[in-house]
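REQUEST FORM: STRUCTURE PREDICTION
Request ID: SP-0412
Submitted by: Lab K.M.
Chain count: 1
Length (residues): 192
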Amino acid sequence: MKGRTAKTRVLTESAILVALSIALFTVSDLLPWPFVYGGGFTLFGQVPIIIVSYRHGIKNGLTASTVLAIFEMIIGYRNFTYVAGIVAYLIVAFADYIVAFGCLGLGGMFRGKLKKQSIELVLGGIVVCIIRFICHFISGITIWTGYCPEGMAIATYSFFYNGSYMAIELVLTVVGLIAVGKMFKLDKDKMI
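STATUS: Completed
RESULT:
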């Protein structure tokens, strides 16, 4: 496919996968999690965005992940009520949403590098989970210091708080990407 038809197909497929990711993130918000100040894992919520990046390139992946990031920020508006000041709002917006979820668009960075689709997908998934964890960790040590238990180092608190749900997110993302990588050939010119 060439030209307008190919662009329309990429846009349509990306929109469907973003919608699937949003649905998976939304459904996952219903899962009980012991923390009250945000965070949590999804049931394969990152996988559709990584697939967009893998199939259609990082540019399209970043576009899809930015849409997801904006949606997550709108849904997570309550987190802005816990902070005060423009700097705090900006750190929450960027570290907890725009960069944290926007990085998912990098998930296709290993396409064609290792000649084994499942490994390329998994490595991309691991890298974006690490980047996302770092974003949440930074937010934790800069903005969420007031929620750290007395006597505990803020870096330790942020590491364990954010690491607890991001470790589960990493495992679920890897499992989902292995399954997709084995079930489908993700050539960009073929429909899934």
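NOTES: Residues 154-183 form the longest helix (30 residues).
Reviewed by: T.R.
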